[in-house]
Amino acid sequence: MATPAGARSMGEDRQSPPRMDPFEDTLRRLREAFGAGRTRPAEFRTEQLQALSRFLQDNRKLLQDALAQDLHKSAFESELSEIGISLNEIRLALSKLRTWMKDERVPRNLATQLDSAFIRKEPYGLVLIVAPWNYPLNLTLVPLVGAIAAGNCVVLKPSEVSSSIEKVLAEVLPRYLDQSCFAVVLGGPEETRRLLEHRFDYIFFTGNPHVGKIVMTAAAKHLTPVTLELGGKNPCYVDDNCDPQTVANRVTWFRYFNAGQTCVAPDYVLCTPETRERLLPALQSAITRFYGEDPRSSPDLGRIINQKHFQRLQALLRCGRVAIGGQSDESQRYIAPTVLVDVQEAEPVMQEEIFGPILPILTVGGLDEAIAFINRREKPLALYAFSNNNQVVKQVLARTNSGGFCGNDGFMHMTLGSLPFGGVGTSGMGSYHGKFSFDTFSHRRACLLRSSGLEKLNELRYPPYSARRLPLLLMAMEERRCPCTLL
Ligand code: NAD
Fold first, then answer.
1. Per-residue pLDDT tens for 454-467?
2. Count of domains observed in the chain
């Protein structure tokens, strides 16, 4: 499907001419639904989450085909990283929704002993979710699960780049969700820019840091809170004390998964020259075992999303020296699983996020040098350390910063809904997954319900002020002084 000239909302006639403000009607409709309280009841949220689950199950084959068309994604990878993970997220939200929604009672001070104090998890209102193309289903639907669970109305803006999934989301998803509360709008950078001129109550953006700044600048005009799920270069330290084949198997899988187009993939390996020499044959062996002698014919290896990214990656293949792979085929947008060595820090492959099946190995003198290397760069989204010595892994963890961390494996940490997923610094702000998604899309409203009687107790605080009453009042307001556990 070609990128539309003007944006359309889901369910709208694809042939209708673009209007002056193509979003106005849709946004008004959603705001009215939120104002009427439609999305607030737990029953409504449950129904919508169940409908979302049905959408995934009824259209599994259609979605797998669309992912194969966009990214040559295998059914295995589609299930694992797109459909299954979204269903998992829905299951968790459905089972925990009422617990998450419950008011949270909080301790009181003496002055409020007879009152009710709690945190209400309140929906923000109208939420905008803007998604990228690399996991086009997962990164659209997983945030949506959190936004629905938290009781919001949602505008979804999938990536125009993964056009097959965009089409399914625009044409099929509306049949499942309540259209007065949820809309899919289509478009590229220009339409998104126009969309961002509108006021939202929360914006959840996944994409690159440059566009993240555009989103945050637009949000600042309305003081709209944002979550930014961004990218960067994820380091992977490999200690001398390791089993090279085990490390190579794990690194190969998560570097070349989705043809390397993964925000949490290891962007480069840091190790000593000795470990590099042990790793190279092990990496070659893992690549051959996973993708065969000719990875081009492997059904399990993805393709680069478009010509623009293919050309960008072709240029990166000229950095350093190709030790493994390096072949490409423009007609298929195929790039072989590649390992580069002798790469200089100043070369382009070390200046930008690679986002493709290319893995540079840089050599360092040891752990301290690797940590210094990591710490003089931007804080990454994920950081990996491999060692048979737990102390080494713990040192890397203790002396660096990153959005997430995994010792002795790849992006397995992000499969846990019990861990927040998000970046820090230029790799993003805020987090989601599981309950963290619910919290992200909920305002924590501070509530105190006081008695309308017992006015005598308030005399302490009223003018004319008395120096004698002040210490008493201060004491009554101190939480830790509260002696009464019965009330
Ligand atoms: P992108 O930033 O180009 O696009 C993301 C979304 O923003 C798309 O919907 C696109 O239409 C819109 N957009 C693009 N340019 C825009 C502009 N100038 N103004 C307004 N909107 C614009 O990102 P991408 O290329 O789709 O995805 C790759 C990037 O996303 C990588 O940097 C990757 O690391 C990052 N990413 C991060 C995560 C994460 O969870 N942290 C996950 C996946 C991808």
1. 888 888 899 999 99
2. 2
